[in-house]
Amino acid sequence: DTGVSQNPRHKITKRGQNVTFRCDPISEHNRLYWYRQTLGQGPEFLTYFQNEAQLEKSRLLSDRFSAERPKGSFSTLEIQRTEQGDSAMYLCASSDRLAGYNEQFFGPGTRLTVL
Amino acid sequence: AQSVTQPDIHITVSEGASLELRCNYSYGATPYLFWYVQSPGQGLQLLLKYFSGDTLVQGIKGFEAEFKRSQSSFNLRKPSVHWSDAAEYFCAVGDNYGQNFVFGPGTRLSVLP
């Protein structure tokens, strides 16, 4: 098991463009979380899935953001009509029922820069 | 709502010196507490966690943390810092369902040779 992976690691886009990020959790982890981390801040919760069901969304997740986990394995986070304020590191994490879901394992993140 | 404060934005210590990073939390129920470390360009790595039991918990890389309910604190300590410990450290609180995970703003640690 190689841990949580995220692609791409870096994304530079122009304002108004759409971007999509992918997260592959640790295999058999049925919970998957998305966080946003801006410079000098801790990660902020965006949303999480249990299997393919999206169970909670933060109010930080505006209508321009959408996340999916269609088969309960990998997940995608799409941002439509990007704004400069979307520039941040987007982190994905996964957790396991056997560990009580409390311990989250994080991927390396996708750094988004919106010009 | 739960919250986490880390009063020190940036701490500088000399290699070999002891270290204490402060963390205070606000949580209505029994907290699940965590310390993560983040090196530049990397994801977060779990250093240690506290759920219940002994209030002094040991983690990886020689770190330990002490839960003090009366002070709502969960401070991270290391007796002798190594240059490779330079990184950003985040305290976090969650519940026993793996939800409501809240991170503090982080403390950046610099280590002088």
Could you explain how this protein is built, in words?
- The complex is a heterodimer of chains A (115) and B (113).
- Chain A has 115 residues and is an all-beta fold.
- Chain A has strands at 5-7, 10-13, 19-24, 31-37, 44-50, 53-57, 65-68, 75-79, 88-95, 105-106, 110-114.
- Chain A is built from no helices and eleven strands.
- Chain B contains no helices and twelve strands.
- Chain B has strands at residues 3-5, 10-14, 19-21, 24-26, 32-38, 44-50, 56-58, 64-68, 73-78, 87-94, 102-103, 107-112.
- Classes of the chains: A mainly beta (115), B mainly beta (113).
- Chains A and B meet through strand 5, strand 9 and strand 10 of A and strand 5, strand 6, strand 10 and strand 11 of B.
Please estimate the helix content of chain B: under 10%
Order of helices and strands of chain A: EEEEEEEEEEE
Shape type of chain A: globular
Derived from helix and strand composition plus strand pairing, the structural class of chain B reads: mainly beta
Q: Class by helix and strand content of chain A?
A: mainly beta
Main sheet characteristics of chain A: 7 strands, mixed
Helix share, percent of chain A: under 10%
Distance between the termini of chain A: 36 Å
Give unreliable regions of chain B as ranges.
Answer: none
How confident overall, as mean pLDDT of chain B? 92
Give the C-alpha Rg of chain A. 13 Å
Largest interface comes to: A-B, 24 and 25 residues
Q: Give the N-to-C terminal Cα separation of chain B.
A: 41 Å
